[in-house]
Design brief:
Layout lengths: L2 H26 L10 H15 L20 H21 L1 H18 L2
Helix pairs in contact: 1-2, 1-3, 3-4
Length: 115
Amino acid sequence: MKTQDLERKRKKEQEAVEQMIHLYCRGNHRQPAKGVLCSECQELLEYAKARSAQCPFMEKKTFCSNCKVHCYKPEMRENIRRVMRYSGPRMLLHRPGLALWHVICSKREQKKNGD
């Protein structure tokens, strides 16, 4: 995979996580202003972006949830799971294109891995 394509893929994954965290924060922490995260969600977003930026498996995986190696600290992993459980279904209403892209990529990955 070309470096340019890899970076585009990384940015798309980071965008999806960011949108999900914003949706979660807005619904659970009452963001002070549109587009502003609470300190807890901001920390999670920065952590997720840092993990994605350092991921050595980006070329072969679709999303962190499909990765065989989980590099998140247990506390952060639980936090991101909570965000995903809340935001996943709601993404269909708020960002349908991104949600459908995520589902399609996940299904392809499952087929490829024989799950």
